[in-house]
Design brief:
single chain, mainly alpha, flat
């Protein structure tokens, strides 16, 4: 038993469990998922349970902003790649030069 406890796998598991307990203590409840669509911008102080609705209502604006910035980046990067594509050469063609 002691040998198993001193292995790297046990240490990683123990760290993961500690991190989960810390997160649960910070958020003050069990982690659950619900299907609500409430988007008011602040989490009610009386509801300590971490739910999808609470997360969206507290961080919805920031999450939407990050998604929009990600989409803009992807579209811009794709457009740039399309512009560069005709000027690309193979490595073998460059070796002959």
């Amino acid at each position: 038993m002691q040998q198993a406890k001193h292995s790297g796998d046990f240490d990683r598991l123990q760290l993961a469990i500690t991190a989960l307990k810390d997160a649960e203590a910070v958020f003050g409840g069990s982690v659950t998922q619900d299907s609500g669509n409430d988007d008011k911008g602040t989490m009610a102080s009386t509801n300590d349970e971490v739910t999808e609705t609470n997360i969206i209502s507290k961080y919805g604006k920031q999450l939407r902003q990050v998604a929009e910035e990600r989409d803009t980046y992807v579209i811009t990067a794709s457009a740039l790649c399309e512009q560069l594509k005709p000027n690309l050469k193979t490595l073998s063609s460059l070796q002959r030069m």
